[in-house]
């Protein structure tokens, strides 16, 4: 009888070591959260005429969704590779994770960077971001001009960013290639505004005229979100 | 007999004949947009007339214009001995010059169905494809898969000859194939930038890649292959 109980207890103990996937997994990895497509905070046509409904729909339901799907797939593959100790595959997967994970991260920020006009889209930022912009770029117009020039100049696919350099406590304008998040340009960079300059972000409406898209997008930029993020990080910097 | 084929220079020279003119006594050549060898609507339904028109008249033209601007600035920088400016201009030259090179080849890589578009390659290229990829279908499958996987704006899925073998390769942005190897000769390139297909295929790049083969001009690729092999 004691032997039977012992065997049963041993079986229970052994099962507890195994995750639901049936592998000897560190419980932390086992509960890896997958990504999901965030809802848009506004209707697909709410950013017209700056960005068409057709673009917003394709951009959100197709492009962003694909990044989420491929990212989750890559994470699952990563989990298996790590469990197998297959370091070659772990390294090989980084490209897919960076591209699709970056795509998810960037677009999740992008939807918050935009707002319908009647919800404040295009309204200039409040302080302290407003003063910081004037200090670093002379004026809001100066910043916009710089971002438009750099966004237009991106060779191929990428993003143009307004970021906060937490280390140097200053605003920066940066561009990244493909789906590289801003953090790839500096681990201390915090994205405030990102503008997608991949052709899919504007082509059905603006065709090759990227500069025109950049000129118009400012009428739906959600400065409130950017100002809130800036204020939060500025507070954190002050208290450190 | 030379094993390595430095034919990329020959290919570029061929482009220069049709689309350049001399500027200034120093002989800096500038470039002009080559004409399409067919009507804008001639590749339908594989590639829409709208795409062909914008792709040629806007995108390729912009590369030509900006390439010429960069070359003129380069000329000035070289004259002034401004090495910093010379180096700084390389990015604009590579991007816009590459855009011009790549698209000039691309228009020749395509042909209307009634002019042989989609017709499989015969002769030595056909045999080489079977040898290296098993079959034309095998090659098409490989190129379509690699084209679909390009992260961002890839170019140039090239079927190429190096040390007497065909290769499939991808390049980023407007990098010409030669950036992957000095002795690589482009035979077939497929533009996978979104502007090449978005108006018609939206985000479904694999569908564009599936259909573009119907208008690929294998005759041109065969001619280049035969020329480079001799």
TrEMBL record, chain A:
Cofactor(s) essential for the protein: Mn(2+)
One Gene Ontology cellular component annotation held by this UniProt entry: mitochondrial matrix
Subcellular location: Mitochondrion matrix
EC number from the UniProt entry: 1.15.1.1
Matches recorded under InterPro entries: Fe/Mn_Superoxide_Dismutase (IPR050265), Mn/Fe_SOD (IPR001189), Mn/Fe_SOD_BS (IPR019833), Mn/Fe_SOD_C (IPR019832), Mn/Fe_SOD_N (IPR019831), Mn/Fe_SOD_N_sf (IPR036324), SOD_C_sf (IPR036314)
Catalytic reaction annotation: 2 superoxide + 2 H(+) = H2O2 + O2
Signal peptide range: 1-22
Top-level taxon of origin: Eukaryota
Family: Belongs to the iron/manganese superoxide dismutase family.
Self-association and partners: Homotetramer.
PANTHER family, sorted: SUPEROXIDE DISMUTASE 2, SUPEROXIDE DISMUTASE [MN] 2, MITOCHONDRIAL
Annotated protein name in UniProt: Superoxide dismutase
Organism: Capsella rubella
From TrEMBL, chain B:
Chain sites annotated for binding Mn(2+): 55, 103, 191, 195
Gene Ontology molecular function: manganese ion binding; superoxide dismutase activity
Domain Manganese/iron superoxide dismutase C-terminal, residue spans: 121-223
Enzyme Commission code: 1.15.1.1
Cofactor: Mn(2+)
Keywords from the named record: Manganese, Metal-binding, Mitochondrion, Oxidoreductase
Enzyme class at the top of the EC tree: oxidoreductase
Catalytic activity from the UniProt record: 2 superoxide + 2 H(+) = H2O2 + O2
Limits of the Manganese/iron superoxide dismutase N-terminal domain: 30-111
Residue ranges of the TM segments: none
Subcellular localization: Mitochondrion matrix
Keyword Oxidoreductase: yes
Record-linked InterPro entries: Fe/Mn_Superoxide_Dismutase, Mn/Fe_SOD, Mn/Fe_SOD_BS, Mn/Fe_SOD_C, Mn/Fe_SOD_N, Mn/Fe_SOD_N_sf, SOD_C_sf
CC per GO annotation: mitochondrial matrix
A matching Pfam family: Sod_Fe_C
Family designation: Belongs to the iron/manganese superoxide dismutase family.
Function, in words: Destroys radicals which are normally produced within the cells and which are toxic to biological systems. Destroys superoxide anion radicals which are normally produced within the cells and which are toxic to biological systems.
Record text on subunit structure and interactions: Homotetramer.
Protein name: Superoxide dismutase
